Amino acid sequence: MSALQSHNPTLRAFEQPERWSDLDAREAKLSVMTYGGTITATSILLSIAAASAVLSWDAMTPGGLFVDPVMSPMWAFGAGIVGFVLAIVISFAQKTAPFLGPVYAAVEGVFLAGISLFIAQRFLAEPGPDGVVPAGATGLIFQALLVTFGIAGGMLLAYTSRVIRGGPMFNKVVMTGVIGVALYAVVLMLLNGLLGMGIPNLFASASPIGIGFTAICVVLGALMLVLDFQLVEHGVKAGAPKHMEWYAAFGITVTLVWLYIEVLRLLAKLRSGE
Questions:
Q1: Phi and psi, residue 14, nearest 5°
Q2: What b/e sequence results for 196-229 when a residue is b if at least 16 CB atoms lie within 10 Å of its CB, and e otherwise?
Q3: Block means of pLDDT (10 residues each) for the chain, length 274 residues?
Q4: What are phi and psi of 182, to 5 degrees?
Q5: Which of these, 17, 106, 128, 177, is most buried using a 10 Å CB contact count?
Q6: What phi and psi values does residue 7 have, to the nearest 5 degrees?
Q7: 2: number of CA atoms within 13 Å, CB side?
Q8: 3-state SS, residue 43
Q9: Exposed (0-12), middle (13-18) or buried (19+): which is 117, by Cβ within 10 Å?
Q10: Can you give the pLDDT at residue 13?
Q11: Could you tell me if 152 and 253 are in contact, meaning their C-beta atoms sit under 8 angstroms apart?
């Protein structure tokens, strides 16, 4: 027992630890990645994105600030570009995640509102003036949110219960699929957008092949969550720096945003064919 210890419980907060190494260990623990810190950071980023999306939706729908037929898509497109740039910066400079992560989440909220409105108009709206919110759009968006978080919860449960475990081959297959989808999107933008070629756009197509392609994207988004969970688990076990909590939260947010968009697109395509 240390000579500085007191038997008065009210004074124990002022006692010196038995060894200074105990204090060093506590300080070291506060500076490393934890599950609790990652959950907190993820909750903060998702809350910021949700609040930003709600405010942006109000601004982009009739009666809102950005309801102009030209400005609403431009706001969404601009937010998408800014979000992409922020994602690149955070990915290569992970220490910026605690500061740029919340900014990214806010920007993605604007993008989510715009892309949700665009998808609803693309697949649900009758021909008419831009800016009109299709009937059932909010219900469809709510369904997409429920399905997205349902998938996320299911994947987390499957991962923690060891039903699904990633490995070298699993990771390669998932990343190959994600890279393939990304390359296909780039090819569409370059060849169709710039050169005017007629390559089928499966992102927009509501044909059986287009629906199947979107379903594959949903599966890939769900499997990407396993890679995110692996990052958290390995980071905590390895005692990664504290900023990695925000980096992992950023990665989960990116995956959930993509998963939500693909789920919404899938539900919209299925409903458009009814």
A1: -100, 0
A2: eeeeeebbeebeeebbebbbebbebbbbbbbbbb
A3: 47 49 52 93 96 88 59 79 95 95 96 88 64 74 95 94 87 94 90 76 89 96 95 93 95 96 94 69
A4: -65, -40
A5: 106
A6: -85, -5
A7: 12
A8: helix
A9: buried
A10: 44
A11: no
